[in-house]
Amino acid sequence: MAEAATVRHCRRGGASGVIASRRLAPRAPRPPLRSHGNGRGAGAAAGPRQRGGMEPAGAPPQGCAPAREAEEPPGSPALPAEEPEGGQPAGAPPGEGAPPPLPAAVGRERGRRGAGPQGPPGRAARGRGRRAPGRRGGEEGGRAARRPRVTVDSSKAKTSLEALKISLRQLRWREFPFGRRLPCDIYWHGVSFHDNDIFSGQVNKFPGMTEMVRKITLSRAVRTMQDLFPLEYNFYPRSWILPEEFSLFVDEVRMMKDGDPSWKPTFIVKPDGGCQGDGIYLIKDPSDIRLTGSIQSRPAVVQEYICKPLLVDKLKFDIRLYVLLKSLEPLEIYIAKDGLSRFCTEPYQEPTLKNLHQVFMHLTNYSLNIHSGNFIHSDNVNTGSKRTFSSILCRLSSKGADVKKLWSDIISLVIKTIIALTPELKVYYQSDIPAGKPGPTCFQILGFDILLMKNLKPMLLEVNANPSMRIEHEQELSPGVFENVPSPVDEEVKVAVIRDTLRLVDPQKKKRKDTQCQTLEHMPEASEELLGTGPAGRGEGDTPRSPEAGLPSLCLKQVFPKYAKQFNYLRLVDRVAVLFIRFLGVKGTTKLGPTGFRTFIRNCKLSNSNFSMASVDILYIDITRRWNSMGIDHKESGMCLQAFVEAFFCLAQKKYKSLPLHEQVASLIDFCEYHLAALDEKRLVCGRGVVERRSAVGPCQTDGLHLTPAAHTPLLNRTATAGKFADYRNPRY
Ligand code: ADP
Q1: Which residues of 583-618 are buried (b: 16+ CB within 10 A; e: fewer)?
Q2: Which end of the chain is more exposed for a tag (fewer CB within 10 A), N or C?
């Protein structure tokens, strides 16, 4: 039995000597950014390139640029300058936060701030919550008085604060770095939806997203889709969840080895909820898994290791792509036109017992490789340990690779992954922001980590709910002395992603659009001109007079609903989730009780002589008990969405025996939706009749049930529940 090799590494902020010495070290003067003799200083790297030019589902990238990246560990500390929770700056007027930061010229901030070899960009220009005495009245009294500026609460922005501030200055929006008593248009949270109590506006996190992208939850969600559409979801390595699927893992691997004795697999074990490569190790055999201690107390995912990744300069690398989930319903997805490539720092060799433990060879995490002596901070897009994805594509393209196909495969991977995540996100959403109650709408920037195989097939490694938006990196000034220095490339990539996310969710743009549409209804001849294809520099919804007119073109490209036609057939579990949510009954829950499940069966006319209500109860108890024993969420009792999906698949297999699973499920969904629509119609007609007659003729029982969801819902909730019933095909998200 081979012994599992541990991946050991320095942890940021850990007790390692290196990091400790950084903390204790005196603050040394900042040196110029290194350019490693490539002839291009940081200023050169910041040149006037237009990031992007890469058409999703198509064109190869234009221009290449270096980049640096790290992952944001959950709960990472706030920046020191941050105001304590709920804090107001001394002397701030009641109901207002801090005055707006110094206005900055729209455009390339970095050039202006001189991030060249002379020194790092001036801190002053970053204006971390700085006041601009005397400017405020002018700002508010002039242009802003005519067009109120978008207000953004940045008090919980944590490590994304710097990039956010720059974006806001470019947009000339109004920042409230210490929060605001009055509602803001947008709340920018560093970590989670729940960082603030918000009842209006927009927040940059979805409830439940952090839970959804944890390694185990993501694996489960993707596996459900793999059960339905195995070919479409083969971009995710075969995975097993530990400890509950340990025996399954052992058995399946044995079977596969028996079937193909030449198969010599490697597996990667990743603790659930881990990040930055924390606790990850490689094994050659299931028996090498450490089942004692940590694996029991810390569940994990074990995954087939991709042994033949694409190498550049003999090094393994992965890609961090930024994806904006702008809305859940209707589903709207944008992908940033460029991403970052993070490189290993030891030449790659296929895994053997001897090299399994070599973290700098097998793991691409920036947070690990930064500690390797081989890590190269470079502004040369072709040589550093961090490069832009576009630089890799340029290189592949020059060797004749089909980068158009690669891009469209990546887009497809992103859309399919989000389709796998949306059903549960909708359950979380209705629980936190029930329909009919005041609450914000949500959007979120996600970090997709993708590995390219040798044959250029993209494979999903993981999704980050809080991708690092830091625009600084650590630099070792002298042995053991570290300091954060601005990273122009990070700034360029991340500021563009944040700024353009804000442009896309701009509440005033929506208002302007609505007004425009109303105006255009009366002026058909003007509509063509205004709604036609604008110049490259114009974002969606901008007009020639838009305040955004001077900004660069959006770095985010819409991929959904743009490609909806190609992918809508995959959204079966989404429709199952809509049924589930309908029968949750009492708002604010995420689990279905036995009564709700029975009502679902009855309303959808799924029970008959072959499937009695007693069998329904047994099905409910069996599946619910198993899912709850997996230790997922004990806060609520009842059937979670995944358990409901399993029950639904069971019912579909029972009812439509000979079809493939996805057809069975699709047929059952159609069947249920048909019966529920008929029921709603009856209720509507009946309700109207009752109102018209205004007589007490007794309750209208359309389905012969005494326990309809409306009937067992507390009185106060009935109006809203009735609304939900009528709207179940089109919930508000
Ligand atoms: P973390 O959240 O801790 O960074 P990841 O899932 O991103 O965990 O894995 C860390 C690194 O391990 C990845 O950046 C990648 O280099 C490598 N890795 C992860 N999964 C695989 C896999 N299935 N095959 C090959 N390499 C992998």
Answers
A1: bbbebebbbbbeebbbbbbbbbebbeeeeeeeebee
A2: N
| Residue located via tokens 């007609």 | 685
3-state secondary structure of 466: coil
Phi, psi of 524 (to 5 degrees): -55, -30
303 lines ligand 1 (CB under 6 A): yes
- Going by CA atoms, what residue is nearest to atom 19 of ligand 1? 461
Per DSSP bridges, beta strands 386-388 and 186-189 are unpaired
- Amino acid identity of residue 361, one-letter, is M
Q: Is the CB of 152 under 6 A from ligand 1?
A: no
Nearest-angstrom CA–CA distance, 307 and 350? 6
Angle between the 389-398 and 403-432 helix axes, to the nearest 10 degrees? 150
> At residue 240, what are phi and psi to the nearest 5 degrees?
-130, 150
- The model's pTM: 0.76
**Cα–Cα–Cα angle for 17, 18, 20, rounded to 5 degrees:** 65
User: pLDDT, tens digit, for every residue of 621-667?
Assistant: 999 999 988 866 666 789 999 999 999 999 999 999 989 999 999 99
Q: Which two tokens stand for residue 100?
A: 């707006």
Q: In the beta sheet, which residues pair with residue 485?
A: 473
Phi/psi region, residue 541 (left: phi>0; alpha: psi -120 to 50; beta: rest), is: left
In the numeric block, which tokens belong to residue 45? 């790297």
How many Cα atoms are found within 13 Å in the side-chain-facing hemisphere of 217? 23
Verify whether ligand 1 is closer than 6 Å to residue 363 (CB atom): yes
Secondary structure in 3-state letters for 621-649: HHHHHHHHHCCCCCCCCCECHHHHHHHHH
- Top mutation candidate among 363, 459, 463 for ligand 1, by most atoms within 8 Å of CB: 363
